[in-house]
Design goal:
The chain contains 4 helices and 2 strands; from the N terminus they run H-H-H-H-E-E. The chain is mainly α and 113 residues long. It is elongated and about 70 Å long.
Length: 113
Amino acid sequence: MLMTAFGGFLSLLYLAMLVLAVVALAMAALYRDDAYRAADKQNKGFWLIILGIAVAVNLLVPMLFLQLAGLVATIVFFVDVRPALKQVSGGGWGRRRRGSSSDGPYGPYNGGR
């Protein structure tokens, strides 16, 4: 019974790693190629290949070591690359910012006047 529960936990863990890799691959595909260059990260093709391999390994190869390597690449994308891309591209793929660069969260900043 304990082995059955552990097997169920591992299958949920594998599914979570697969979903995370697929989401990272989709996000990497949505950003423009020039955003990667402006953020001084590897190019878009590099991240699409790395994250695509991570998805393929999670789907096809039942080796935990290779799946963990894909998980590390996915985490690096989410923690390092994605925030830099969001900063360069103005907060995301579909969001438009209104106002000037001196606007704060409650309106324009007037320098304390």
